[in-house]
Design goal:
This protein is of the alpha/beta class and 209 residues long. It has helices at 2-6, 8-32, 178-208, and strands spanning 48-51, 54-58, 68-75, 77-84, 91-99, 105-109, 116-118, 125-129, 136-139, 146-148, 155-158, 165-167, 171-174. It is elongated.
């Protein structure tokens, strides 16, 4: 009697366990399979700070070891184009809400990773610090910038050396010094004046004779 009453339950329990095992296997396969790319734990809004006219921009948390692209620029307020070069997990523009006119110093800190930092005419003092990694620093913007590429094998593209300065950058591409070009033109002009004076003197000499 008791066996007949409990008889169907073992079968139901076995069936339930079998279904549970199947679901567990499917779940394991799903987890272990390829996963879509997900954004890193730090968002674009975590990369800047503004204190007493100084805007500091840097990757935070896990972002610091990524290869980052950072470009601050003025569009009413200061905006920052930001992306992870190596993973493409995040690419966005942050509106800092900071008026461009209130920014005196712009300091971009690349920290770790093979970063690409692009400085634009924003603020009266612009500092680009590549940090560790093989960085590319772009400061050719027609205004004075200071670049420190940091550790690694780094490169910089800059205006002429009297406008920009670069330290710890293994490859340096400066534009030609305009003073050199100017002195060349001045020397050429002086040379023409001397030739004219010599011609006039020669002409006067002939008249006397």
């Amino acid at each position: 009697m008791s066996g007949g009453a409990w008889g169907p339950r073992p079968a139901a329990i076995v069936a339930g366990l079998s279904v549970a095992a199947t679901l567990a296997v499917l779940l394991l396969l799903t987890v272990s399979g390829p996963q879509p790319a997900r954004a890193a734990s730090c968002g674009v809004g975590d990369i800047d700070s503004f204190v007493s006219g100084a805007l500091t921009i840097e990757g935070a948390g896990l972002c610091s070891d990524h290869a980052e692209y950072i470009k601050p620029y003025c569009s009413g307020d200061v905006k920052i184009d930001y992306a992870f070069i190596d993973t493409n997990d995040l690419s966005a523009t942050e509106d800092t809400g900071v008026p461009c006119d209130s920014v005196v110093v712009v300091d971009v800190e690349g920290l770790g990773g093979n970063d690409r930092i692009q400085m634009t005419p924003l603020g009266s003092t612009r500092l680009a610090n590549g940090g560790a990694g093989d960085d590319t620093v772009l400061i050719r913007n027609g205004v004075s910038d200071i670049a420190d590429c940091g550790e690694g094998f780094d490169s910089v593209q800059a205006d002429h050396s009297k406008l920009d300065s670069a330290n710890n950058c293994e490859i340096q591409e400066f534009l030609a010094d305009p003073a050199t070009q100017g002195s060349g033109a001045a020397a050429k002009k002086k040379c023409k004046k001397k030739k004219r004076r010599a011609a006039v003197a020669k002409k006067r000499c002939k008249k006397k004779h």
